Queue: 2 jobs
Job 1
Amino acid sequence: MRTEKTFLDQVHKALTGRDRGLDTVEWVPACWFAPHDGAGVREVNVLDALERAVTSILRAKPQAPNAGQAVYNIFIRHFSALEGVHPTKNRDGDSSTPITRGTYLRTILLLPYLKDLGVTHLHILPVFEMSEARVKGTVGSPYAITTPRRLDSTVVEVGLGLSAEVQYGALVEASHRFGVKVIQEIPLRALAPDSGYLSDHPDWVYWIRRSKFDEFRKPSFTADQYARIATAIETGRLHDLPIAEAIFRNLIQPTPDPSEVRLSATGYSSGGEDPVVPAPAFSDWPFDDHNQPWTDITYLRLFTNPEFDYPAYNTLRYFTPQAVEDQWLNEGVLEYITTTLHHAQNVLGVDGVFIDMGHGFPQNYRRRMREAAPDLELWYEDFNEPPLLITDDIHLGIPEKPGSEWFAKRAVELDAGTSCGVHRCLRALENHNSVRAFATMPDNQARGIWLAALMLPGIPWIHSGQEFKASIAINAVIGDGSGTTVTATPLFNDHALPWNDPANLRTATRHALRTRARMAPLYNESATWRGRVFGEGSALAWHFIGENGYNHRIDVLVNPSEVAVCGRHPTELDPVHLAAGQCVVFVRLGSHVWQLDSERIGEEFKEYAGSCR
């Protein structure tokens, strides 16, 4: 019998003792509830539904984790948000529709949905106290945090009188009872300009004159210098990286005295008529990107070498070796980062931390971070090729526009075997910083490429809404040409997901993840994978084969091109035709072969009728 009082117990007590006269009925997507395939919406008293859900969780035995690995990425206020009117179909980001913001506790209602889908890890975008200076959109950016020690209090069920810490803790506990690990993303590379840390520790960031703030940009280089940078990065000769131009380096001002730092509406500053203020951050990838600065955050100064006392590509990501030697470690920043990880492990109770801009931490930082929280899974957003892996680190690379080139890279990567850490890489065709795959290509191509990527080695990483073909990018996408702006994106505004798209991929996602789990020996370091060109003619299609020597085999045939191709069948001598965008997966266990086809996406894996070789 349980005697320990948990966060779930506190939530249960608040729900059962609440003033029910304040309850409201809302229209909730039917797929939130078992069997999770329903269409349309239900009229639901959400707090009643929460009470039943929490009661059931507390009474039931903890569930075993799903087999295999599959990550589902959510943004709390967006994932469980609801439209305030009865929709015939939820509108993906229709700003004219009133939105009830998602909360920690409403996310608990969706844990059975995620468990049924096959999810093993819940990756939560930042949920910390946000900046009130230079706010983006109507709500602000979850990446512009003042501190990772206080949780976002705007995504709570207000009527229960429970703190954000209790409600978040209940979500973590409930996830664990469903056998789902929680990976919390934390922005450790930057802070908001009104973070209290800047008052006490102004030496943690870079400062510029306020008069230069609006014109501040990342340093630029000549065409020859950009070519030198590219060569140095490609060859690993980072000692040859050009330094930032003098005009840029001179913008960085001496660190103000803590006693002279004052808070204003736009953040901390120091001085009189033209005070110094924290320098805005900017995109650190690619090195020749020149989009607008990120005015709501400022980069942390990781090192103190006076010759490299500026934020640029060679002090943020492609580190000049002499700039990042141990003697120049900014010990105050390092302690802030390591104690934050310790707090996540021991106070938030999460299983791991996803480190935003993880490629912005060199090896000496990563080693100390690992030592600070030895039992915490460390996942890095890491755009390096190959990624900087330490022990069991997990890496999320760049979402690229899917197509033949993407599959060509996967083939090269698989041929390289374990040297690329392929089984510790998260595989995503879209994420919260990219365009949505189903918004950028024909539906048949998107389905086929999505299915193929889901079945290749690596850890599947599903961006919330991808399984029902959401089309609105979460973040303002850099350089995508789509016209996406800060004012139109869910990262900075209240939006709801289009849960009721009738042509969804929920069933196919479930079957694919269950098949991966059943074929687990093919998704670890002992398996052998290879990729080769499939078909004849100018169109490039791909055939990926995974084997482990024990009668397990998967064949993934995908045609990302816009024309049909014909090639040899993996289980028969007869040729096979792939339509434009089509993917066919053959799963072999002994003499039995099952098939999944992106052109019949609603169907289950079924036994293949052909004869095996």
Note: Residues 61 and 177 are 8 Å apart (CA to CA).
Job 2
Amino acid sequence: MFTEEQIPELLAQLTLEEKCSLLSGSDFWHTQPVERLGIPALMVSDGPHGLRKQAEGADEMGLEESVPATCFPTAAALASTWDVTLLTEIGRALAEEAKAQGVGVILGPGVNLKRSPLCGRNFEYFSEDPLLAGELAAALAAGIQSGGVGTSVKHFAANNQETDRMRTNARIDERTLREIYLSIFERIIERARPATLMCSYNRINDVYSSENRWLLTEVLREEWGFDGLVMTDWGAVHDRVAGVAAGLDLEMPSSHGWNDRLVAEAVRTGALDESDLDRSVARVLRLVSRHHRETPEEHLDLGAHHELAREAASRSAVLLKNEGAALPLPGLGDVVVIGEMARTPRYQGAGSSQVNPTRLDNALDALRRRHPGLPFEPGYPLPDSPAAAFPAGELLRRAQEAAAGRTVLLFLGLPAADESEGYDRQHISLPAGHVDLLRAVRRVANRVIVLLSNGAAVETASWQDDADAIMELWLPGQGGGEAVARLVTGEDSPAAGWRKPFLRGWSSTPHNSISRVKQVRCVTGKGFSSDTAGSRNSGTDRVTPSDTVWPTPPSSSAICGLRWLRSPPKRRWARWFSPLRSPSPTPEAEAVSQSPSSISGIRSPRWAALPGNYEVSGIWNWGRRKAPTLRSR
């Protein structure tokens, strides 16, 4: 195996064709080796929240044939912890599992801004706030790289929707691009020095990211000092020669030699300077020298990783509503569990981040370990679940009968088909069958506690009054089932802080829709604006903390995460980029937060039943005086 000091010597020995071959993969997951010079292939793998290494002999995109790996909560969940130390610990665990499988670079984390709640991949991204997303992603990347495994921070840049993602043209003025969309990447490069960045599919102001010299060279390398490698998202190359000239180093996956020949011909004819080629080859060789693994490491404690996943799931949960101190439960004697997601959990997203877990907890089994014989009704079917064999009407009737006079733990959420890589959501509502189940149960139950499993924001206004308590679990990973049991029984306390706005309705969003044409108009330099279909809020002033208007936004607003700025003659959306700051609690909430806890080990503020609608209690974070801040334990 060669060292970094030998790279200049290797460059001198490589033929033109060999140099060009190094700039594309040898297959779907490996770089190109050059055996005569002792240059090995480096393996990369999906893995933002769990490794997705393909098993030997599996098809390239086989999602069910990856080797078992710990499935941690998705980024949407982890962002609610506001805990950089936890993210670093998870990063170290991911690195250990990567080394055990001979993987040199993990393709993650994904850090794109959540511009719209409709984005099908929002579960894989951290936040709509560049500061929070940047700090947490930097911690995760630093944890991975501390174990000697490289990261590929993605997707660079302005890749904020899945619909038509290969052709979208994001038109963004430079101030907005730098302050909102690029600042996440800049912060990660400064904090974590990732091994690679992955460029996105889309165009930015008419130029594809994979051949955008201003983005890949002038900003990334000359201004920010990035010294790593830039690779493509899989299939993101449009003009390989232009990409090399712009600063794109590695094309993935293999083009089977086609683009290699185009690059070689461009060098021969003078259309591409060979110094540009050599620069990219040197970056590939540097990546291989730093992160190639001769032999997999065998020391791996999957039990400890599962416990870390469970802890992360508990710390990611957000208590949205808790009227009458419905949670935590004093016991499980009068409880019935309803909702197929308690038995068939929705614990991760779909697409390239889908993990084959080493084990999988479900909430029903975890609760029954505490109270054997706990009654259960599925209430609704899910694809490939045991309940799918029964008519929906019969499931609803049986659930309502079981709920009569009891405390109901009601598991609701978004089915896997509702949000995924590759397409965007059409709405932000829970499935109609889930809402119908809630209303049917509410009519007969003593109390109803809703436990949500979803990767992105959902509309709540139409059903929140039918629940005594609501807890957001996000997509909690393989340890989510045990985490839920600990949370509802008071063994654990929900420690998360609100970091993502939930809209009262789709009309509340500061823009109109996901674009279904090739051009997207994003935000202006001075305010949060619309996309292709709508107008531009181009005159808003820059917002400072003193501009925040409290206590309660108008009924058409988001719950939190976006501040209202009074700007006559109409209100406009705006953001200021610092961790959320809460208003002072009302006297009633203060009294609750100071009341003694009846359960040992549970701090009262986290289980406080706050007055008013749960949107405000979500902002207050269960009665605490201050909003969550990024913290280390």
Note: The CA atoms of residues 346 and 453 lie 6 Å apart.
